[in-house]
Amino acid sequence: MRKTKIDWFKFRTQSTYAEVFRKVKPAFYGQGELLELGPEIPGKDGWQFRRQVMLADLHIASIDYGGDSQRGWTRFDMSGKGCVWVEDWNALEGVKTALLACELRRLDICLDTYDGSVTHEMVLEAHAQGEFKRPEGGRNPKLKKVESSCSTDGRTIYVGGRSSYRFIRCYEKGWEQVGKMGIPDAFLKPGLRVDFDGEKVWPGDYYRVEVEFKATDDMVIPWPAVTDSDAYFAGAAPFCERLIGVAPRRPQAVPSELEPRAALASQMEYARRAYGGLFRALLELYGDDQETKARLFDELSSDKPSDRLIREGVLTVGF
Asked: Can you list the alpha helix ranges (DSSP code H) found in the chain?
C-alpha cells in the first residue's frame, strides 16, 4: 500500500489514438469494460482532433492527435477525476514499452492527511526553515499564499514556479470540498463531520500536499514514479520527505462520490434560490398534494439531464 496517490497523469506517444486507448483500458476498474471513446471533436493546445475517454456518462480523460505542428505525437491527458478510476497503475506504467516513443509529460503526486497533523501554519514554518529547497541545495523557492477573509474558504500555498519541473501545492482540501458541496455556513460548526474517501472528519483537518512534475527545462519524468510515487514525492523536498516518514499507509479507496454529490447539491441550491419562489407559487395555485407535485415536477423537467451534472458523474452515483 502506498501513502501517496497519483492526481494527474499525462503522456505522449507516436502511436495512434486507437492504440493508446487499447493499451490504457485494462488499467481501469473492471478491466475497463465500461470505457468508451467519444466522437471526434476539435482538439486543444495545437492538436487537430480530440476524443474523450468516457466511463458511462463521465468524462475521465482525453486523447488528442493530428495536426502538422504535433509531428505525429498523440497525447493522453487524465486529471484527478480520472485517476481515481485506475485500479492497476503497473499497467499504466507498462505503456512506456507497449507504445512507440512514450514519454511522461506531467505527473501529480499528492499526500492527504485527515487528522490535522499537517496545517497551513506548519507549511509556512517549513518554508521559512528552508525545507522546500531542492535536495541538492540552492535558494529557497518563492512562496505564494492565496487566502480569504472567510476561514472556511480554505487557504492555499504555492511553492516554486508554475512552469518549472517541480511545483508544489499545499492546501486545505477539506474546505475546498465543502465549498463544492454548498453547505450553508450555519452548518459549519465544530461538530460537523464529512465523509472524505471513507474518512469521517472535520473539514479543517483534511490537508493535501501535492507535487506537480512536468517534463520541462530539459528534465525528464522517470516512468518508475508512476508506481513508486512515495519515493518521488519524498524526493521533491525535505518537507515532503518528512511527511512521508510519518504518514500512514492507506488502502486504495474506491472512487469517491463526494464531488458528484457536491455538484448535485450545488445545482439544487441554485434552483431553490433562483426558482424556489416560482415553485411555491405553483403549489399555492394548483395544490400541495403529492399527485400535484409529481405532475408539476414532470412538466418542468427537461427531456435530458443537465450536461454539467453528466460531466460531474452524477448519473454514476447511487443515491
From this structure: 17-24, 80-83, 89-93, 95-98, 120-128, 173-181, 229-234, 238-246, 258-286, 290-300, 307-311
